[in-house]
Design brief:
The chain is mostly helical. Helix 3 packs across helix 5. The longest helix is centred in the last third of the chain and has 12 residues. The chain starts with a helix and ends with a helix.
C-alpha cells in the first residue's frame, strides 16, 4: 500500500481487514474499489461474489510472490525451493489459471419463474 500511496498521492486508500472485507465493502457501495492480486481476487469471486462484482482495471505494478517458511527450518525451505524450481513454465501457468479463472455458474432464477407464472 505504501508504494501505491506514494505513486498516487491524490487517491484515498483505506486499509481493510482482508479480501472478503474489502470486496464486501465494495459490494455494499461503501468503497469505490478494492486493490489486490488477481489470483486472490479471482478465487474470492469464484467462491463468494459470482456475478456481483467485476475486475475493472489493473495497476502496472508488479509484485513477485513466494512461499514463506520460518528461517530456522532449512529443511522445509530446501523442499519448497526444489519444488518451485522443478516447475516448468506450463506448470506454473496451469497453477495460475486454476486460481484466476472465473467460472460463472448460472443457476435457476426461481424468483423470475414465480413472477412469470403469476402474470
Amino acid at each position: 500500500s505504501e508504494i501505491l500511496q506514494g505513486k498516487y498521492p491524490n487517491l484515498n486508500f483505506i486499509d481493510v481487514e482482508n479480501i472478503r472485507d474489502g470486496l464486501n465493502r465494495v459490494n455494499k457501495g461503501k468503497l469505490f474499489g478494492y486493490i489486490g492480486t488477481l489470483p486472490s481476487i479471482g478465487h474470492m469471486f469464484q467462491k463468494e461474489f459470482i456475478g456481483e462484482l467485476k475486475i475493472a482495471g489493473k495497476f502496472d505494478e508488479f509484485w513477485r510472490l513466494g512461499v514463506g517458511v520460518r528461517n530456522d527450518d532449512k529443511t522445509l525451505f530446501s523442499i519448497f525451493q526444489k519444488a518451485v524450481n522443478s516447475l516448468n513454465t506450463d506448470e506454473k501457468q496451469a497453477i495460475l489459471n486454476r486460481w484466476i479463472s472465473i467460472n460463472y455458474e448460472k443457476g435457476v432464477d426461481y424468483d423470475l419463474i414465480n413472477k412469470s407464472v403469476l402474470l
